[in-house]
Amino acid sequence: MAKIIGVGALNDNTKQFYHEVLDAVLGDRFTITSFNFNKIDRKGIDVDILLMSTPLMINLVRKHLKPTTKIIPIRRTFTNKSFDLLKMIDVKERIYLVNNGIDVTFETISSIYSLGFDFELYPFYPGVEPIDEIKVAITTNEVHLIPDTVETIYNIGHMVYDVDTILDLLNELDLEASEREAVIQKYQKTIVTVDRGVSSLIDDNVYVQQEKNTIVNLINEGVIETDNDGNVIMVNEASKKILSNAALMGRSIDEIIPHISRSLGDTRYVSDQLVKYHNEKLIVSTKPIYVFNQKVGDMIILRNVTEIKRLEDMVRKDISLFGHVAKYTIDEIIGESPLIRRVKKLTRKMATAQSTILITGESGTGKELFAAAIHNASDRAKFPYLAINCAALPENLVESELFGYETGAFTGAKKEGKIGLFEQAHHGTLFFDEIAELSLGMQSRLLRVLQESEIIRIGSTRIRRVDVRIIAATNRDLNALAREGRFRWDLYYRLNVFPLTVPPLRDRKEDIPVLFHHFLKEFKSVKAIEEGLFEIFTAYSWPGNVRELRNIAEYLAFMSEEKIAVEGLPYTFRRAISQKEETYHVGEEKHGILRILKEKLESREKVGRLSLMKALEDRGIFLTEREVRGLLEELKAAGYIAVGIGKQGTKITPEGLKVLSLQS
Fold first, then answer.
1. % of the chain surpassing 90 pLDDT
2. Class of domain 4-74 as given by CATH
């Protein structure tokens, strides 16, 4: 009894097309039935042979099959008509390749590239976010899936069975060899025979042979043809590069790639074997070559795993980055002081982890620089880095920017919707600057994303998974804000997994000359610097930190004369210095007390009034206990010291340290 042949696809249109093509190939000699895999009923699939348009459905379909059913995955190629249409496309810009599934889309792209076309193709299938800048699309009869932003469409029609698929089918049917050959010869005239990037142009005609050599040399994959004894009779340029060997012709393939001959004896197509070659890993596919039903050799396809990963990374970055790149590295953070070296060392360690980081520090210290450096030192460096200033965005826009929205989600929304920052930063890093400015409502939504790694666009019910590392920064005390009820405790603890404090410039004054010279170089200034300038810089407290120093450097680079002198400093800066000196001036006794308290702070010793009196006497300052008590009260009132209770002792405050820095 003749075998029953089934054809299965994921929609009625594709199912019907492949049914009609197969019917034209086999005629009425066999019973052919077709199935939409999304509409399988309880009767199951009662066939002897099943051709599947997508192997991704095999686990779903297998339970509906008889144990004896032979499954043949459909491999595709182009008709001659489709090939001619592709040759007419003369587009140098980016082009979508639109199809109805990820596997078919990438298979189509591979087939187009294998024919030597140099289009810049980008995959588009249901679930992929459109790129507004791409205005041209090629599709295989899936016009309804093309984004609205596309202006020019090339519909090249459905792809059809390749010769290998038809051969696999014919080998399962009760046909004479002559019948099989007649079917193949007739079918082969209607298609372009492409297989894994190779045009199988086998012909005795010298012109066709030269054409074959030209085509295979255009292909980025390595292509080697051997005879039945495994000797190399044709090799393209890509193979020589992949194998780092130009002398391949005439040699045994086993000598070049050991143990590969085990696959060459097979009469079937062997796909994507992982083979070790010296210090590299290759993906190798082999296919037997038949002429008039007689095996005459094998075709071997080589791909370098490292190169595949590089191309995948390049495509992924080009699709997802759109300029969202971190600009700084840890090595570009200027400074050699012990404090900044310690912070850079911590930064390097934190970059290797995946947890959230909370960067704290005064305004102008370079928190965003550290955030970018962490991203570039992490394993997410190849993926997007996006920064959002929570204080700069209006409250009503924060949610739509972070999570995106669907078509018509609200008045004024783009008709095509918008992808949010979380989705854009997928696999990368999202930096929240001035995180303390987020409202409590947005803090709650952000906390949910951090806990679940899921977002929902505005106007949608679909949950989208996101893999994003969060770095937050603030110049405010989040702990204090949480105690006041203005910041969520749970979000604070979720963010503060790795705390990183960027020191103010007054705590790393050794770096001021290095930073100043760096900024002058940035502004292309080679002017000499007057002696005494850095003494003034060192005495100043730098409330604006590194940003303020950079502004001063920019001013002096352009506004000073031939030499950068103290007189050339901007008036506002000189006035600030004089005001600071007046504000912070204290007498000799108070200065002595502050100096002692600073030394005790560095040695981590507690100090009371009696020990303070003794230390003052050692410095030649003789005061009564009452006088010391009065001076301590004045220093406390000015905010320069903090007097502890009981045995806690007295400590100098940051403001007191400023006084010492200005009067040293």
1. 22
2. alpha beta
